[in-house]
Design brief:
Elements: H1 5-22, E1 25-28, H2 47-53, E2 59-62, E3 65-68, E4 71-73, E5 83-86, E6 97-100, E7 103-106, E8 110-111, E9 119-123, E10 130-133, E11 136-137, H3 143-146, H4 161-164, H5 176-181, E12 187-189, E13 197-199, E14 207-212, E15 215-220, E16 231-234, E17 239-242, E18 247-250, E19 253-255, E20 259-264, E21 271-273, E22 276-278, E23 282-286, E24 294-296, E25 299-301, H6 319-331, E26 339-343, E27 349-351, E28 354-364, E29 367-372, E30 375-386, E31 391-395, E32 398-400, E33 404-408, E34 419-423, E35 426-428, E36 437-439, E37 472-476, E38 479-481, H7 493-499, E39 505-508, E40 511-513, E41 525-527, E42 530-532, H8 536-539, H9 548-551, E43 553-555, H10 557-560, E44 594-596, E45 599-601, H11 629-646
Parallel strand pairs: 1-2, 2-5, 3-6, 4-17, 5-18, 6-19, 17-20, 18-21, 19-22, 20-23, 21-24, 22-25, 23-26, 24-27, 25-28, 26-28, 27-29, 28-30, 29-31, 30-32, 30-33, 31-34, 32-35, 33-36, 34-37, 35-38, 37-39, 39-41, 40-42, 42-43
Antiparallel strand pairs: 7-16, 8-9, 9-15, 10-11, 10-16, 12-13, 14-15, 44-45
Length: 647
């Protein structure tokens, strides 16, 4: 018995606070009922019902099974006491809790010979957002293309105008029903492919969908038929967070939705952790206004029926390039219709994820974001793409075999200042394929201070009424391995000539292939880099800018062989520095204030004083003596996930 009334009340309040912080467990199972209390013995049947009952500190425990729901949250947890939604994993880490967008399995198929041989149709009142066959996403023609009137005659081959011609009076885009009717042997020619022509149906796995006026159409190019497969048409998204905060989602597999997570309004401090997200136009979409979103330790992939073809383009194989065109102009209308994470929010953290086999890995357009320690692989368009007005840091990422590993987009496209810091990343391409960094301007879209981009070489007026502040883009201590000999790792020479001024790039202490088009005078800093090449022009010493060797270390073919050690893994080169590497001791100390050509700069983030042991730092992501264990671990785990995709 308690003799001290105040002490007893204190103990009661303490227990109440503790219970509130710990919260309760709410159970969900496909065998449950939404009339149940949500206990372990009497679980609920839907996550939606659990979400309505959950309060700060509660954990919704979701049993194995498939849940076909679109779940909208408008409530929040509290700081230190979130609402957690936790799926179930198997003993080998399998994702057993699967959430799909609402949809239906289509079973009543009829032949549609009025369209073409091999075309089937089924009634479907509403156009689906996504069509899956046996759990894998297949290509669906966009709604506008399906409305175009059919041509009188099919073309013998597809050219680029038939894919990306603008809608309107003079539209040359191939109509949707004609796409469904194309013969199995049809090929595509495009300026991207050079002389090569790629097989259209091969990259689609011989199947294509389209919807029109209450019917879903499915074309097979062989004797296959829809009755042999599970065809699912779905609409909607997975989780929609609307002004919802302090929520945690973990151990969930999300599939079959337009977006796995859509974070909107004033949502803040939400976390997606250890989830497997696939299908749709984007796996995670963070809208402007949302802040402090964390996406970590998750796996993201398109889950397309030929995901294995999202690969680096080469002269011998442009199937990845054709997939890029199909996702942009047939599935999409004129923009890339596949993105792993699209961030328009603020203070977003994207960390430790595996983003693989799709079109674009990360679109970073938010403020104060941090993108670190991610693997981004086999993106047929772009690995990491930054937009105005992004501000943030990008470090420790392994970006491999993407059409363009790093793309600086809309450089001159906004009046707001942007600032980016890219450091300690590995950008790995095939030895003679692909670019490394591409700068995109599109200046003709914005404002009265510009003249026609396509017709003029001098795009900006002499005295613009509203000058654009391009900000500063810092690229330092990265290793760029591979790439072709004609698109060097990084050059802004041609942009500087167009825009009448130096470009806002600060390129320092990187190891990168270089070519004759590089010029140091086109930007404030192009110093301390190790520039290596196989290009004949460089071997003969013909340089566009003779100042390069003074400000950087430039080596030819033979000396470039001494750059790195040779303990390569399958698919991952060893970029640790050899004992006699020319990249040693050629950089600038950026851990403290430094000067270049008489101009003084502040220390850059990411490097504490003493980060190098010699008289000067080494160029590249790794200092001499540092190992690649972190990147090796990331690479091997990514390979394991790719094996899982195949299963």
């Amino acid at each position: 018995m308690c003799n001290n009334r105040k002490f007893c009340l204190f103990i009661i309040q303490l227990f109440a606070i503790s219970a509130a912080l710990c919260g309760r467990d709410i159970f969900v199972s496909p065998d449950g009922s939404d009339r149940n209390p949500g206990s372990s013995s009497k679980p609920l049947a839907t996550i939606t019902a659990a979400a309505k009952r959950a309060a700060a500190g509660d954990t919704v425990k979701i049993a194995p099974g498939i849940y076909r729901e679109q779940i909208v949250f408008r409530k929040s947890g509290k700081p230190g006491s979130p609402i957690t939604f936790s799926g179930t994993r198997g003993k080998n880490g399998e994702f057993l809790t699967i959430i799909e967008a609402p949809g239906k399995i289509i079973s009543h198929w009829l032949p549609a010979p009025e369209i073409a041989p091999g075309v089937w149709k089924a009634e479907l009142p509403v156009r689906p957002d996504l069509v899956m066959m046996d759990g894998k996403m297949i290509a669906q023609i966009n709604a506008r293309t399906m409305t175009l009137p059919r041509w009188k005659q099919l073309p013998p081959e597809i050219d680029e105008a038939m894919l990306w011609s603008k809608f309107g009076k003079d539209c040359r885009r191939l109509p949707g029903f004609d796409l469904l009717s194309l013969p199995p042997e049809i090929r595509v020619k495009h300026q991207y492919f050079g002389k090569r022509k790629e097989r259209f149906w091969e990259v689609l796995n011989g199947v294509l969908a389209g919807w029109s006026r209450g019917y879903i159409y499915l074309r097979f190019t062989d004797t296959d038929m829809p009755q042999k497969h599970t065809i699912t048409a779905s609409n909607g998204e997975g989780f929609i967070l609307q002004n919802a905060s302090h929520l945690v989602f973990k151990n969930l597999q999300m599939r079959g939705s337009r977006r796995s997570f859509r974070i909107r309004g004033k949502s803040s401090h939400n976390t997606i952790d250890r989830c497997f997200l696939k299908h749709g136009s984007s796996r995670v979409r963070i809208d402007a206004g949302a802040d402090h979103t964390t996406v970590k330790n998750s796996i993201l992939t398109a889950g397309f029926i030929r995901s294995d073809l999202f690969q680096l383009r080469s002269a011998e194989d442009m199937r990845g390039g054709l997939l890029y065109l199909i996702f942009k102009y047939i599935i999409g209308v004129a923009s890339s219709d596949d993105i792993g994470i699209h961030d328009n929010g603020s203070h977003t953290l994207i960390s430790g994820n595996f983003i693989m086999q799709g079109l674009i890995g990360i679109n970073a357009a938010g403020r104060q974001c941090e993108v670190k320690d991610n693997v981004v692989r086999e993106m047929s368009s772009v690995g990491i793409c930054t937009f105005a007005p992004v501000s943030g840091i990008f470090h420790g990422n392994l970006v491999m075999n993407c059409g363009i590993p790093l793309r600086i987009h809309d450089l001159r496209g906004a009046r707001t200042r942007r600032e980016e810091f890219h450091y300690r990343n590995l950008f790995i391409q095939a030895k003679h394929a692909g670019q490394q960094i591409y700068v995109h301007c599109e200046s003709h879209r914005w404002g009265p201070d510009m003249v026609n981009f396509e017709k003029g070489t001098n795009c900006y007026l002499e005295n613009p009424p509203a000058p654009v502040d391009p900000g500063k883009i810092w690229i330092y201590h990265n290793t760029f391995w591979g790439g072709n000999d004609f698109s060097p790792g990084f050059t802004v020479l041609y942009l500087a000539k167009r825009f009448r001024e130096r470009m806002p790039f600060f390129f320092i202490n990187n190891t990168v292939k270089w070519a004759n088009r590089m010029e140091s005078r086109s930007q404030p800093i192009f110093d301390g880099n190790l520039l290596y090449t196989l290009a004949a022009e460089a071997r003969r010493g013909k340089l566009a800018d003779p100042d390069i060797p003074r400000r950087n270390r430039a080596v030819g073919f033979e000396e470039s062989k001494k750059l790195w050690n040779k303990n390569d893994l399958p698919g991952l080169p060893d970029v640790t520095l050899a004992e006699d590497s020319p990249a040693k001791n050629c950089g600038i100390d950026i851990s403290r204030s430094f000067s270049v050509n008489g101009e003084k700069f502040s220390a850059l983030p990411g490097f504490a004083p003493g980060y190098f042991k010699a008289a000067s730092p080494d160029a590249g992501a790794l200092q001499y003596g540092e190992n690649m264990q972190k990147f090796i671990r990331m690479h091997r785990q990514a390979d394991e996930f790719l094996k899982m995709f195949k299963k």
